[in-house]
Amino acid sequence: MPASVLSWHGDWRRYGPWHNEGNGFTDKYFPMAPSIAVTPPLLASLDIAAASAVIEDLVATGKILDPEVKLSFAIDLPRDPTDPRELSEIPEVRLWFLRLDQRFPWLPLVLDWETGELGRYAAMLVPHQFSTKDGIRYNPEALEIFVMGKIFAIAPWLQAQGIPQFTRLKFMTQMLGYEIDDGLFELLRSPVT
Asked: Considering its fold, how many domains does the chain have in total?
């Protein structure tokens, strides 16, 4: 990717650590933020129906892009206390999020970024390493592919929602540590031929 389009200037440590217990902060301080429950039976069967229902209801009611609505996930996965893995390192959890992401590729745009949901979501989909000292460290090439893939998926979705500006999308990429040149967004406004 040419440096004029995409450049990294972030700190890997600002995305972690992500704790194994869900995120009670969201429900307590942001009551309008829907929290999607993710339980062992849903993970075992890769069942995204309940999550889809919440998301599709927000789309149908026109609230999906309401700035007050910020989605989060409450992952309830009882585990052996000696299991050192983070949730994003458990294959069943990653597969569930991968399936959800394929159904709703624009989902990162509507997550509760303030409570770390964007970083946690990215960790479910992007190869990374985790340390208690440094937090999460994404594979740089994989993160770049993830960011560009999201830009290409979300830009047309925003246009289909009647939103011609990509300000929120650009801010999302900045949250992941990338500064995207405005020229790329201009190219995405052009009709596909």
From this structure: 1
The token pair that represents 155 in the structure block: 């830009």
Q: Is residue 98 included in any domain, yes or no? A: yes
For the chain, the first-to-last Cα distance in angstroms comes to: 22
Q: The whole model's pTM is what?
A: 0.80
Instruction: Tell me the residue range of the domain where 130 lies.
Output: 6-189
Residue 1 lies in a domain: no
Q: Helix or strand or coil: residue 129?
A: strand
The answer to whether residue 34 scores a pLDDT higher than 50 is yes
69 located within any domain: yes
Sign of CA dihedral 81, 123, 77, 29: positive
Question: For residue range 92-149, what is the model confidence (pLDDT) as tens digits?
Answer: 999 999 999 999 999 999 999 999 999 999 999 999 988 778 888 899 999 999 999 9
The rounded mean pLDDT for the chain is 83
Task: Give whole-number Cα distances, 67 to 20, 71, 145, in Å.
Answer: 27, 11, 27
Task: State how far the Cα of 15 lies from the Cα of 175, in Å rounded to an integer.
Answer: 9
Question: Torsion-angle region of residue 46: left (phi > 0), alpha (psi -120 to 50) or beta?
Answer: left
SS3 content of the chain, % helix, strand, coil (to 5): 50, 10, 35
